[in-house]
Amino acid sequence: MGLLAGEQPSASGAYDAVVVGSGAGGLQAAYCLDRLGLRVAVLSADDRPGGAFRMWPIFERLLSWSKLDAPFDRDTREYEWYDHNSLLADEPELRALVPAGMSREFIVPSRAEMEAGLTAFAERSGLPIRYGCMWEATRREGDEVVLETSDGEYRCRAAVFALGVTEPWRSPIPGIEAVPHYADAGRPQAYAGKRVVVIGKRNSGFELADGLLPWAARVVLVSPRPVQTAVLSQATVRVRYFQPLEDYSLGGGTFAVDAAIDRIERHDGGWRVHAQGTTTPGSFVLDADDVVAATGFTTPLRDLPSLGVSTVGQGRIPSLSPYWEAAPGVYFAGNATQGAPGLRKHGSGSSSPAVHGFRYNARVLARHLAETRFGRPLERPALGADEVVPLLLRELQTAPELWAQKGYLARVVSLDPPRDDGVQPLQAFVDATGPDAVAVTVEVDATGTIYPSVYLRRGGRLRNVDLDPDRLNAFAGQPYRRALEALLR
Fold this sequence. Notes:
Layout: E1 13-14, E2 17-20, H1 24-35, E3 40-44, H2 97-100, H3 111-125, E4 129-131, E5 135-141, E6 144-149, E7 152-156, E8 158-161, E9 167-168, E10 195-199, H4 203-212, E11 218-223, H5 229-232, H6 238-249, E12 254-267, E13 270-277, E14 282-288, E15 290-293, E16 297-298, E17 311-312, E18 317-318, E19 325-327, E20 330-332, H7 355-372, H8 388-398, H9 400-404, E21 409-415, E22 418-425, H10 426-431, E23 437-444, E24 450-458, E25 461-466, H11 478-488
Helix pairs in contact: 1-7, 4-6
């Protein structure tokens, strides 16, 4: 039976899963669960889709890129490697919706272009989103999670929270409470000719610095730790990081200072920042016309800690299992999935804070829930013995999941008998005990070198072998075929 005129979808009641949020993370999780045949309700406090992209980035231009022309057609899986902003879909008409609306002025979309792509995905996919529905409280009854909302109660066996990391958070620095946060920075024109101190040297800090370059007389980025340029060189946000650093190296008025801030005070109509150097010891003072706290955000957990949800990252992010479970029946999607750290083999984290990372997490989570919580075994195609190595080589060469989530997601094949187990979190594979299997992933070391890595489980014992890098990242050739065949023989 269809909806009556004016009636909203996802009426209160019992569902297999309830997804909270209609941003990129919520849309992707809801889509993947829905297409696996689960009965899903989607709740959104907003009046339309888009989530945080309706407000941020504050200066309108995203950090991640989408390449309009690439070696693959836009409706193919391989094109996802070149489009870091669109959501995933089985239907060709739902793929690559962000570049479909982009101009060619920039390789990174504007906020309006990103929001338009998400809106098109929500509308064309037919997701049952109930807008204007506020999640208010949560409780557990047996093996069900009950969500109390402004539109009634929702019961489910899997509650998926795609809330984003969206509540402004400030470091415990004396005086910082009077400083505008990144979320309140306003228009860049307001900083014309001014000396600006930006507290923080992560995504939001560099985005502010990049946006202020054409306007401010001087920008000083301050945080205790130095910028890790070797890591940034492999990041999809590098273009926005390196412009301020280039201005710094050329003496253009930008500085990246390694220091811990003692206190921030009002002074002569402006601000005075007292700091202690870290890389270079010693106290110093920065005078500024404006100070902006780019100290990050936190996930709005509300009462979820009462259900057993704990946090990491100074209490800002939920602590998650490799399959993004925070407590029995409570899961997260979207950029909060960074709460599952992965192996961190060389110290660098996942790409889960960004769309091109967490969209794959959502697909893996949906498959995991279908199998483990709802008893719906998914197809794991049988492979001939001669098909295993070609499949793994092909994935190392072109799989967008492995290239987007380096060292975090892996392609897994069971060996006795050979079956394609699909994409899984590498951490889950490493921690598991079970039948013989092999997982391959693409990794990047501390120097920025990219190479393929093989994890082989035989007789309950795990062996990790890193294969040689290739100057053109061509991992499907004969040297890699011979190495894989020798390992699996």
